[in-house]
Structure formats: C-alpha cells, structure tokens
Specification:
alpha+beta, 5-stranded antiparallel β-sheet, 48% helix, rod-shaped
Length: 491
C-alpha cells in the first residue's frame, strides 16, 4: 500500500493531537462546570434551609407553616421528630416528608418523668439568652428527583407533569420557639447545571469538527510551503541524475533552517562527487597514457624480433616488461585504496623494517646512510609500509646529489620515519602538488628515469590508511626531507 505524503501525515498527526487535547480539555471543562454548578446548588439549598430554620426558631409549632422560607416554588418542608410535616412550600403541601435522611432524634417514650425532666432541661438549654432557639449549623445534602412541569417547577398534578428534575436537597436541624426539634428540608434545582453542561457539550460537539478542519487545513498549507524547497531540490536532483551533469547544483533557500542546510549539504555532496568523478576520469586518462608507452615499445620490439630475430634487444624488452608490471601493480594498489581497503592488522617494527629494506638495496646509485633507529611498533600492513619506504627511497635516489639518509625517531605517542636527500629540494608551492597522481615536477626527465609519478601518491594514501601522515619538511635548498608519522601500536 502506498504511503501518504509528508503533508498528509503532518496534517493528520496535528489533527489527531489537537483532537485528543481538545477532547481531554472538554472533559475537564465539563467536569469542572458540573462540579461548580452542583456546589452552587448545594450552597443555595443549605442557605435556604438555614434561613428557614432561623425563622422557625422565632415562631411556635402552630405558625411554622406561615414562615417566609416556605412560600417559594422550590421544594421545602419542616418535619418534626415524629415525621409530621409542620409546614411545606406550595408544591409539597398535603404530602408526606420529602426525605428522612436527617430527621431529628425521636423522643424517648420509655423515659417517664425523667425523660420529661430531661426534655424540659433540653428545652431550656435550647433557648439562647435573647429567647431565640438555637439552630444547628450542621447540614446534610442529597440529590432527589421530583416531577416538574414545563417551567421546571415541582408539581404533582398529573396533567402538568412533563418530566422529572434533580434537586440538591439540604437538611438542617432546628427547634421551634416551643422547643420542638425539627428538620428543615430545602431543595435547589440542578436544571441550570444540566442545561449549562448540555449547552457546553453541544457547543464542543459542533465546534470540534470545524476547529479540526481549520487545524488540518492550516497544517497542510504550512507544511506545503515548508516543503516547497524540498520539492525543488528533488526535481533538480532528478534532472541531474537524468542528464549526468554534475556541474549543476540544487537551489539553496535564503532561510537558515533545516531545508537550507539540506540544500547546502546536497551541493557539497555534488561538488565532492564531481571532483571524484573528474579525478577518476583524469586517473583513467593518465593511466591509459602511461600504459601506452611501454606497451607500444614492447610491441614494436616483438614485431621487429618476429621479422628480424637478430635485432631483438632482449634487455630493453625485459626493462619495458618490468616497467609495465610495476605500473600495473601501482594502479591495482591505488584502485584498492580508492575502494576503501583497510590495511592488514599486524604489528610492524619500523627500525627492523628500515634495516631489512636498506640491506636489500645494493644497486642504488647513491649510498643510503642509516641514522638513529629508535625502537617502536606501529599497527598495520608490513607489505604496504615497506612499499611506502621503497617509494620514498626511490624518489630520494632520483633527486639526491651524493647520498640519502633515513632515520626513525619517537615523537610523543608516535614514530616518525624520515627520508632525506641532498638534492635541490621542493619549493613551498609544490610540496602538496607532488603527492598528486601522475605528477612529475621534472617534466623534462624521461619516463624511463622518472617513473609514472605514482610513488608519492601511493605513499601518502597508504600513510593515511594507517592513521598517519606524509609531508615534506625542512627549508628549501637543503634537499627534500619526507617525514612519515604513524601512531604507536597500543600495548
């Protein structure tokens, strides 16, 4: 199945995140609103019950029904300890107690005269100094359901009942002026709470899809605008791939964001790729040119020998063959190095390597003076490092006036192998160029004497593959001093 585009995934992701956040926020808002309105209804019911209880404290039992707290439309009742309704609001007149969850304690009928005496003492204790009965501030609340009419008012007339409504009912203990313990019930409608919660919920349900569409649309547009440079980069890369023209570059946005950095990195990669391809092209061309001479010379000699065997110069044919073999070996080594071949893991003692190699060079035109050879081992390939030393000594022999010297010294946590000749040296401007492939500074020198110009290039590549370096050091005019630095082997 084909995956959706980045724009689609970004829009969907943003929409889902916003939807989850809004749903969570909606639940929190509704719960907070419901709790706040319920607390308000409970507080209103408690205040109404306490107010009625305070008024009852100033009237006898026979006048409880006339107190102001019982003349409203909200459910309210005053019930004595025996469950008798002493007064009620209009909707509940003529009906029994609306609740019995917080009634005053019934009198103890078995207490006799002692109970009467205690009741009298209680009545006296219930009176305050100003003659008013004390009101208990403790209250209890519950949620009860009452039948209501279309105005939301409590009614028991079957013709007017249109449904039911929850009320928060509070019960407060009190006493009449006669000392009769009573329970005052007062209810506050939860209709406003339910209506408010319903309104908020409906608003969220209608507004959420619209808001999500806006979020998805804005995210789509912003993502599209942000990815527009990426599409330009893709199109240009596709065109470069189709045309194989590595000189082209992708457009770089003016912004300093990730897309601009991507464009710059892409152009840097294209530049490196162009340089690599150009270097490879030059390498192939130079290799073909270098191979052409010994092959042509060898072919000519063989053709002459085929026609006139007595004219065959065997020594020259062998020399051309050796040159051809050496050049082929150099080219193969460079190809392996370019392919990223890592040197063999071994331990090589540079002092022993120098002694062994110098001892084998008996046909050199100039003597090789061996200087200080400080002991130490490096990690790498003995064969490749021997090839580096041979290339450096061959180069020194071609440029030396009378002698060549070689030495190995410790430098910090590494070893430095130096090869120096007493020739004219290398100028500052040419000290990096001589390490390029197929470069010969003494252009007038014949290939037979000077080689193909690959020795120093191979030496530097091998040094770098071993984690080291190869440079030309020393003042110009005192000969050329090549220094190979390699890190010491651990342990």
């Amino acid at each position: 199945m084909r995956r959706a585009s980045v724009r689609v995934r970004a829009a969907l992701g943003a929409t889902v995140v916003v939807a989850l956040a809004l749903v969570a926020a909606g639940f929190f808002v509704v719960a907070t609103l419901r709790g706040g309105l319920a607390d308000t209804a409970r507080l209103n019911a408690e205040n109404a019950a306490r107010g009625t209880a305070a008024q009852i404290a100033d009237v006898p039992d026979t006048e409880v029904a006339q107190v102001d707290g019982l003349d409203g439309d909200e459910p309210a009742q005053v019930v004595d300890a025996d469950g008798k309704v002493l007064g009620a609001s209009d909707p509940l007149k003529g009906r029994g107690p609306m609740a019995d969850f917080s009634r005053a304690d019934r009198p103890d009928d078995d207490a006799g005269d002692a109970g009467d005496a205690e009741g009298a003492d209680a009545d006296d204790a219930a009176d305050t100094d100003d003659g008013r009965a004390e009101v208990d501030t403790d209250s209890e609340t519950k949620t009860l359901t009452f039948p209501v009419d279309d105005d939301g008012e409590v009614t028991y007339d079957k013709e007017d009942v249109v449904g039911t409504q929850e009320f928060n009912v509070a019960a407060v203990q009190g006493r009449t002026m006669d000392g009769t313990p009573v329970t005052v019930y007062s209810g506050a409608s939860l209709g406003a709470q339910q209506e408010a919660v319903s309104t908020v919920t409906r608003s969220m349900l209608f507004g959420l899809p619209v808001l999500l569409l806006v979020v998805a649309g804005v995210t789509w547009l912003v993502t599209r605008r942000a990815l527009r440079p990426v599409e330009g980069i893709r199109q240009e890369m596709s065109a470069i791939t189709a045309s194989t023209d590595l000189t082209r570059r992708v457009p770089e946005p003016d912004a300093r964001d990730e897309v601009a950095r991507l464009a710059r990195t892409t152009n840097e990669t294209l530049a490196a790729l162009e340089a690599s391809v150009e270097r490879q092209r030059r390498f192939v061309a130079d290799a073909s040119h270098e191979l052409r001479s010994p092959i042509a010379s060898l072919r000519t000699q063989l053709e002459v020998a085929a026609a006139h065997p007595e004219l065959l110069d065997l020594d020259e044919a062998v020399e051309d063959t050796v040159r051809l073999q050496t050049l082929a070996a150099d080219l193969l080594l460079l190809a392996r190095l370019d392919a990223g071949e890592r040197p063999a893991e071994g331990r090589v003692a540079l002092d022993a390597l120098v002694q062994e190699h110098v001892a084998q060079r008996v046909a050199d035109p100039h003597p090789v003076r061996v200087g200080a050879l400080e002991p130490g081992e490096v990690r790498g390939s003995a064969g490749q490092l021997s090839r580096v030393l041979a290339n450096l000594l061959d180069n020194a022999q071609r440029h030396a006036a009378s002698q060549v010297s070689v030495a190995v010294r410790r430098e910090g946590d590494g070893l430095a192998l130096s090869v120096q000749d007493d020739g004219e040296g290398v100028s500052e401007g040419e000290r990096e160029r001589i390490f390029e492939r197929f470069v010969r500074l003494d252009a007038a020198r014949s290939r037979d004497e000077g080689g193909a110009g690959l020795g120093l290039a191979i030496a530097r590549d091998v040094a770098e593959r071993h984690g080291g370096s190869l440079r030309v050091e020393g003042p110009t005019g005192d000969g050329a001093r090549f220094v190979l630095r390699l890190p010491l082997a651990d342990g």
